[in-house]
Amino acid sequence: MLTTRMRRLAGLSVTAGLVALLAACGSAPVAPGFYRVERGDTLTKIARDNRQPVQSIVRWNNLSNADSIEVGQVLRVAPPGSAAATPSTASARTRSSAAAEPRGTAAEPAAPPVANAPPISLVWPASGTVVRRFDGKNSKGIDITDTAGTPVVAAAAGTVVYAGNGLRGYGNLLIIKHNADYLTAYAHNRALLVKEGQTVQQGQKIAEMGDTDNDRVMLHFELRYGGRSIDPSRSLPPR
C-alpha cells in the first residue's frame, strides 16, 4: 500500500514538474514595468491586472488598435520612468518565469537554441492549415486550424503525463512523454480522449480540436527536447 502511494505521489510530482517546465520555458523574462502577452490575454485584462487605464497602455505602447495584440508581444504596463510595474498577477507570473529561467534579455531566449538533438520521427498531429510557425521567440510551436472536432492524434508513441486544463493559456492540454528527452504538447482541445498514465501509439486519436482558452478553433502543437522548444516542422513529414 505504501509503495503504491509513493509511486502515485512521485508520478504527480513528475507531472507537475513537466507542466511547470512547459510554462517556464514559454518565453524569456521581461524587464520590470513590462509584460509579455500570453494566450488568452486581452488588453483590458492586462490593464486590470496591472491597475492601469487601458488608454495609458495604448499610449505608452503606441498601439493603433487596442483589440490587436499578439502572443509574445512585450507591452509597457507602467509609466515610462517608473522603476517597476505595479504588483499584480501578471507581474507575479513574470517574476516566477524569471526565477525559473537563467537571466537573459527581454527579446531573446535566455539560453542558446538546442543543438544536435537526436532525431525523432513524428506524424502530423492534425489535418488542417498551419497558420503560425515556430520561431523560438514569440511562437514556441505551430498552430494548425481546422473545424471543431477534427481528430488530434499522437505525433509519436509515448505515455500521457498530463491531461487537464490547469495551465493558463493552453486550454484543454495533453502532454505526451516519448522518451527521456522528448515530449509533445497539444493545446486548446475541445475534448481529451486519453488519461494520464495511458500509453498511446503513434497516430492514435487522443483529442478533438477545439478553442478552449483561445479565440479560434486550432491545435497548438509543441515539441520539446530536454525541456526546450524546438521546431516540430523539422521532425514532421512534408505536407
TrEMBL record:
Signal peptide: 1-30
Domain LysM per the UniProt entry, residue ranges: 33-77
Pfam families: LysM, Peptidase_M23
Bias type Low complexity, positions: 80-109
Region (Disordered) location: 80-114
An MF annotation (GO) of this entry: metalloendopeptidase activity
GO cellular component, one term: cell outer membrane
Keywords: Hydrolase, Signal
PROSITE patterns tied to this protein: LYSM (PS51782), PROKAR_LIPOPROTEIN (PS51257)
Family stated for the protein in its record: Belongs to the E.coli NlpD/Haemophilus LppB family.
Protein name: Murein hydrolase activator NlpD
Organism per entry: Paraburkholderia humisilvae
